[in-house]
Amino acid sequence: MSTRVVVLGAGFGGLELSTMLSEALGDDVDVTLIDKSDAFVFGFSKLDVMFGRETPQAVRLAYRDIAKPGLRVLQETVTAIDPEARVVTTDAGVHEADVLVVALGADYDMDATPGLAEAGNEFYTVAGAERLAGIIPEFSEGHAVIGVAGAPFKCPPAPSECALLLDDALRARGVRDACRISFVIPLGTPVPPSPETSAALMAEFDQRGITLIAGRRVASLDAARSVAVLDDGTDLAFDLFLGVPKHRAPDVVIASGMTENGYVPVDSATLRTRYDGVYAVGDVATAGVPKAGVFAEGAARVVARQLIAQQRGGEAPAAYDGRGSCYIEFGAGRVGRVDIDFLSGPVKTGTFNAPSSALVAEKDEFGACRGARWFGAPVA
Ligand SMILES: Cc1cc2nc3c(=O)[nH]c(=O)nc-3n(C[C@H](O)[C@H](O)[C@H](O)COP(=O)(O)OP(=O)(O)OC[C@H]3O[C@@H](n4cnc5c(N)ncnc54)[C@H](O)[C@@H]3O)c2cc1C
């Protein structure tokens, strides 16, 4: 009988893992990939939707298009995980696994920031980005605040990108002089592992008149007064609030008993959890890397190589190196890149690559080739 691999979550991590297993083992493996959604959307596509560069429909990659040997994709919601027994319950049934991989990502805890749901807008979900696509074109004067409600949060450069793209949008409509933009971030700098990247972003903020409030988080929003209250008690009045909610592992993962301090602890070299035959990859895990798709994907590759080696009797693969490159929108159609290395050497490094037209093309290729590989069709 083939090894039954059950993968929970068809995001960056789950898609890469399932694709690699299918490519290497074909019908010699029995992979079940479960996701509650009917489509995958790249994180960066949320910014495209929010600023009207893409429609929500154009950025959806439908799971029904996946047809790979050894892999079946189920649209079900995971309602319980028993990591000891490697049994998963969903709204449609029960799945028993020889190998269980939890790749359920990070969820948003809107209640952790009182007032955010009523007074603000978040841009970290497709629905939130879609809503903002209707609101931003109407914003023509006043104070826009981009505010992060807690760390860690997905894709640390994303709120900086939001500030720069908002500045672009306001300039394009000729209303920038009537608007102020402030950006509140709990980190000391926009991209702490890369001082060069942070310096480049801060220079861009300065040049565009964007006020950076670093080392502070948005603690609550007062809907009646349209005020964001920061964690040091400062009031920041706003006319438009664009928020990044506090993150945490999905409830079903917390209820499974697998988490510590909100996320699933793993051995960063192998992505193994403390449960036999159970791995966790991506934003749901604490692997010592930032929460971003490229790291979820890199971790998934390490798990896939271990499972392939087990099946074929090969040598154990190299440890996860915590390396990944993130593209950063600098506004005005420019894209830069930061190359992060968190685990392979003695210190964490982040190397900055200044915006260039080559990087614009590289970012497009990044999405297109993953869309093609995972879904069998290029991204629209
Ligand atoms: C605005 C923005 C911009 C970003 N830009 C980038 C970027 O440029 N580069 C980059 O690398 N990363 C970027 N990211 C981050 C990236 O999207 C995430 O870090 C990445 O998706 C994490 O991958 P994952 O596999 O861990 O989880 P996810 O991709 O979040 O996948 C988790 C999956 O689990 C499913 N799920 C959750 N709960 C359940 C349940 N109970 N039952 C069934 N299914 C469930 C979800 O539907 C989801 O499909 C960005 C994020 C945002 C918000």
Tell me, briefly, the overall form: globular
Q: CATH first level of the largest domain: which class? A: Alpha Beta
Structural class estimated from helices and strands = alpha/beta
At the fourth level of CATH, the homologous superfamily of the largest domain is FAD/NAD(P)-binding domain
* Total beta strands: 25
CATH topology of the largest domain: FAD/NAD(P)-binding domain
* CA-based gyration radius: 21 Å
What CATH architecture label of the largest domain applies?
Answer: 3-Layer(bba) Sandwich
Number of helices: 9
Cα end-to-end separation: 39 Å
Largest sheet: 5 strands, parallel
> What is bound: which ligands?
flavin-adenine dinucleotide
Domains, number: 2
What does this structure look like?
The protein is α/β, with parallel strands linked by helices and 380 residues long. It has 2 domains: 3-106 and 249-319, FAD/NAD(P)-binding domain, CATH 3.50.50.60; 110-247, FAD/NAD(P)-binding domain, CATH 3.50.50. 29% of the residues lie in helices and 29% in strands. A 5-stranded parallel beta sheet has the order 5-2-1-9-21, covered by helices on one side. A hairpin with a 4-residue loop joins strand 16 and strand 17 (235-237). Helix 1 (12-25) packs parallel to helix 8, helix 2 runs parallel beside helix 4 (126-135) and helix 5 runs parallel beside helix 6. Flavin-adenine dinucleotide binds at residues 9-14, 34-37, 43-44, 46-47, 77-78, 103-105, 124, 154-155, 158, 250, 252, 282-284, 291-294, 296, 326-327.
Summarize the structure.
By secondary structure, the chain is an alpha/beta fold.
